[in-house]
Design a protein that fits this description.
By secondary structure, this protein is α/β, with parallel strands linked by helices. The chain has a single domain (16-260), classed as Rossmann fold (3-Layer(aba) Sandwich). The chain has helices spanning 29-40, 52-64, 79-93, 115-143, 174-194, 215-223, 237-244; strands at residues 20-24, 44-49, 69-73, 98-101, 146-151, 199-206, 255-258. The protein has a 7-stranded parallel β-sheet with strand order 3-2-1-4-5-6-7, with helices on both faces. Helix 1 (29-40) links the parallel strand 1 and strand 2. It starts with 19 loop residues before the first strand and ends in a 7-residue tail after the last strand. The mean pLDDT is 95.
């Protein structure tokens, strides 16, 4: 019948071809694979952070691999910087379809750190995430569609297991637990606010990533998971593309743990 929408094959719904994606903090442990995944799925991808030297080098490496990735500057603690980033991306690409709030500031070392460090953390990790979500979410809503993915942590879902760190020179900062837990419920708020205008908002909560930590810690952590290992350089890619794409068109307000069963054990 003429004019009847064509049903898409399921694998086609994962494609991000023709989409524009923005990833904050794109040169870090999580951000590299997130940006790479979005670009590999076909999105025109922009990475944004304050560390331009590292970010630009990563963007060059991606482009040399044939991926459409551009680095831009962002101070997530500044509302003017957030607005400027949105304007710049729209000027270049026309619109934004996907936002991944991945940037994080870690000024606290442990429980004994100055309260000022806690407050500084909140300016980026709480207020900054709010400013990014509101600015980009309203832009998406004006176009009637979009996906926002907030990168949380299992440490926003459970308390710390201090036995993992016994005998190791490793501080456990309380601010991280505070803002990652708040991110989960803020994502639900934003999903409710923006959902009627076509924008989905979800949280992913990764577990520990292997980054050549002390072997004692790695052994202890692995034993706390069902799969017996820490996450690696590709373990976030599938879930990010899924939530960014039409494959997850009926999912919003969710928090998905990517943790090898850590929070289920």
């Amino acid at each position: 019948m003429s004019g009847t929408p064509q049903k898409r094959k399921v694998l086609d719904t994962f494609s991000l071809a023709g989409k524009t994606a923005v990833v904050t903090g794109g040169a870090g442990l999580y951000g590299r694979q997130i940006a790479e995944a979005l670009a590999e799925a076909g999105a025109r991808t922009f990475m944004a952070s304050r560390n331009q030297e590292k970010l630009q080098a990563q963007a060059v490496a991606f482009r040399e691999a044939g991926l459409d990735v551009t680095a831009m500057e962002l101070d997530q603690g500044s509302e003017e910087s957030v607005s400027r980033l949105l304007r710049h991306v729209v000027d270049v690409a026309g619109r934004v379809d996907v936002l991944v709030n991945n940037a994080v500031l870690r000024p606290m070392a442990d429980w004994s750190s100055p309260a000022e460090a806690f407050a500084r953390s909140m300016q980026v990790n709480a207020t900054g995430v709010f400013m990014m979500t509101r600015a980009f979410g309203e832009h998406m809503a004006a176009h009637g569609s979009g996906s926002i993915i907030n990168v949380g942590s299992i440490q926003g879902m459970v308390g710390p297991d201090f036995t993992l760190y016994e005998g190791l020179d490793w501080g456990i900062p309380p601010d991280y637990f505070f803002h990652k837990a708040g991110m989960v419920n803020f994502s639900r708020f934003a999903a409710s606010k923006l959902g009627p205008r076509g924008v989905r908002v979800n949280t992913i909560s990764p577990g520990g990533f292997f980054n050549h930590q002390d072997p004692k810690f790695v052994e202890r952590y692995n034993a706390r998971t069902f799969l017996g290992r820490m996450a690696g350089e590709t373990d976030l890619k599938g879930i990010v593309v899924f939530l960014a794409s039409d494959a997850s068109a009926y999912i919003t307000g969710a928090n998905i743990a990517i943790d090898a069963g850590y929070t289920s054990k």
